[in-house]
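Deliverable D4.2, example record:
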Amino acid sequence: MHRFGSSLPRAAVLASAFLALFCSTASMSAWAQSATQPAASRAVDATDEGSGANTVARQWVRVPRVWGRITAEDLGVVINVDDPYSVEVGEHYIRARKISPRQVLRVRLPVRPTLDRQEFQAFRRQVDGFFGVRTQGLALAWRQPHAVECHSITGALALGFDPALCEKTCAPSKPSRYFGSSSTHPMRDFGVRLSMLLAAPDAAQAKALINRGVASDGTLGERGGQLANVHFVSTSDALRSVRRQLFPPAGPVPAFGIDVHLDQTDALRHADRVLMYLTGRTHVDGLESVNFLPGALADHLTSFGGVLDKPNSQMTVMSWIQAGATASHGTVSEPCAHLQKFPHPQLLLLFYAQGASAMEAYWKSVAWPRQSLFVGEPLAAPFGR
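Output generated by the structure prediction step:
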């Protein structure tokens, strides 16, 4: 792999609309386990480029129908008492989402970017011992640590630490059984406890992020309502635009309350009512002019978007959060151009549009998530009812 450096009730409408999008979990699993070809040698889907005979017709993928989602009753909060940011942000989150005290774990962790595997194993034993199987997901109330050696802390908590991955981070990693599934109880069903990092440049912006998530709940998808805009972007960076082969057809989908745009540009500017913005570049300009809806998901496919602790040659997920997105994704070590290590655009959108939380939609869209750092407000659910 190459390196980067109706008059009908809403439920009935959605059920009808999703009928053509069902699939078996087995087919998703097969995709998760297959290795992608190197991006440089992989044929490019040229639908949007109008290349004539080589044009491939875009179509929607099939996904399972999902009923319900993870709620505050299923979510735990972890606060690092040795980190003032963590205490302030964690306590705000507990109040905002009315988290039960029995669902809050307070720990002591080093306030630094990376844990070693021994430190992580001790932390994971605390988490598993406290939450057991009753808790399906976690809000981690800090910015650091964001990694466990070459793993993201969210990936390691959910799937465990795999020493072999750190020997060759560009290799395929073990697939997540939760990928593309209909489950709303990942810990019970698969032994996978999801998590998201409540990370932002500072505590004030973290509180704003949390408030956006809470404000988003149930705001979209009403029949006859204004459509939310979904932007899937192909840029001049061909390697980092490999996800375009997974993009759906462009156009409005009123049953879902969305309008899908397939853009060819290095940066969206002055875009309004943006629910989703997926692109591929090391840096994305013009974010200050984008009007993100509460609950918006946004990310850029690049190598080190999940490295939060120091400036590097690439933009991090923090820029999306600062611009007004409610959740994002980035990798913490070199993933190379495996599509399975990044959010599948259609799965992310279709699970979210069914009412999944931001945390569930993101986790269900990444097949190999050990290097994936998921950042944002976990329970945001603009299509939730």
